[in-house]
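Quick one - inputs below.
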Amino acid sequence: MKAGLSTSVVLHATLLGFGLFSLSAPRAFEVADVEALPVSIIPMESLTQIQKGDKKATLSEKPAPLPTKRPDDVPDAREVGDNKIDTDKPPTPETKPTPMEATAAPPPAPEPKPQQPVKQAEVAPAPKPEPKPATPATEVAALPAPKEEVKPDPVKEAIAAEPVPTPDAAKLPDQAPAPQAKPQPPKAETAKAPERKEAEKPVKEAAARPKSDEKQFNADEVSALLNKAKAAGGGAKRSTEQASLGGDKTKGAKLSQSEMDALSTQLAGCWALPGAGGGEDLNGLRVSVRFNVDASGRVEGSPRVEKSSGNRNFDESALRAVRKCDRAGLLLPKDKSDTWAEIVVNFDPSQMLF
Amino acid sequence: MENLPLAEPGVQLSVWALFLQAGWVVKLVMIGLLLASVWTWAIIVDKLIGYTRTRAAMNRFEQVFWSGQSLEELYRTLADRKTSGLSSIFVAAMREWKKSFEKGAKSAHGLQTRIDKAMDLALTREMERLEGRLGFLATIGSAAPFIGLFGTVVGIMTSFQAIAGSKSTNLAVVAPGIAEALLATAIGLLAAIPAVIAYNKLSSDVGKIGSRMEGFADEFSAILSRQIDEKVTAKAA
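Output:
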């Protein structure tokens, strides 16, 4: 029995010793950060952040629109185009160039017309400030315009200098009528007020423009817009760069993360996995679906498989998901229609939460 | 055991750390099971050695017994030695034979019965010696898992009480207590599995040895009965 006991004790001691050293704590599981949504929208900057360029050109480093054909430079032009006058309306395609070529010349004719009302408007307010020196307190916006134009009037300046302390302006009218015995100005003020406002409107606009100090009021632009004869639109800035991939307008707007999440959640909800419960192994399958969305938020045409998973049923299920969600209405921000004209969505069941 | 260092001081989930963290009931169960395992293996080793020796001795004895050597001579060589197995049965039978003839037996039938009784007694004693402690293996084989389970249940109970106290159901809080409790079941199974296997093997071995001894006893009884008959007829004549 001694032999057996000693053998057993030695055996256990060695086993325990070995176990204590080799059977130390098992390595902790590595938990990967798993994305919660099985549907992800590819954040293609070229789609969500459209630079000005040409839709058919290849993508190049520097964003540039189609090169313009006209060589003559228009100073201060901001929009790129072949137009003679700078407007920020998008160029409308010339579908019928034939009959209108001749009538395209007349633009000079309407030019004087828009200038005249402006001149009239400018002239009209000039004399008017004179009779009402006390009023400026009420209409602050109108004040700067006359000031510039009526410089030659030294009297007005002198009068204007007096009411400068505007807080007192409220008192002034009270005192003014009594000693000066001028009953007319206050009355004229009320009577003329509506007239003057109407008359001043063009002036305001005209006066406001120069203050933004970048874009002068351009009568040519007005005429160009009024001109229905020829397809108008497009800027006058010339471009000689190689055209790059982009849209008509530069759109800095991106789909925000929450907007993308809303769309992917919606698509995930529409998505029914094929053969769920059928034991088909869907692991590792992944399909990219591309579809165009028109301005109203509807899928244009039908969604296409961009990158197939190799499993036809699986691809079909992704397409069905897009169609089903389209029937219900895709959750897209209406004001960012340019950013989601084309959408690529990845369907990956391995990231689906059950 | 005490001077064994922790495998990795930083990690608190090694086997040794789990043992240290356990409550005293669980610790007691684990220590008890460990001792049972040690004893189980001691019995296993002892029995394996013992049975091998017994079988070898039986082979040797049978060789000598059937070699044609005179039984008186054989008895004289074996009488002073410590006997085991077949030789002890042989010695018991021969002793009874000698005593009866030295005193002058009256009845041949009575002598035969006495010799058989002596051989049965020797056989039973031998079987007892061979089968001794096999019952412990059977007990450990059936009870150790339950003892381990008891430790686990107590450990899980206390760890759940601790969880209720800490008011956190985080798996990191729950897991160590359960892991340490499960260690008790693991040790219980570790002790029970070899015990069950060894018990089955050793008891079948004992059965074989026992039947062989019985066969020898019957054979020797037949030989002695023939000799008694010869002596009785010689006396009568």
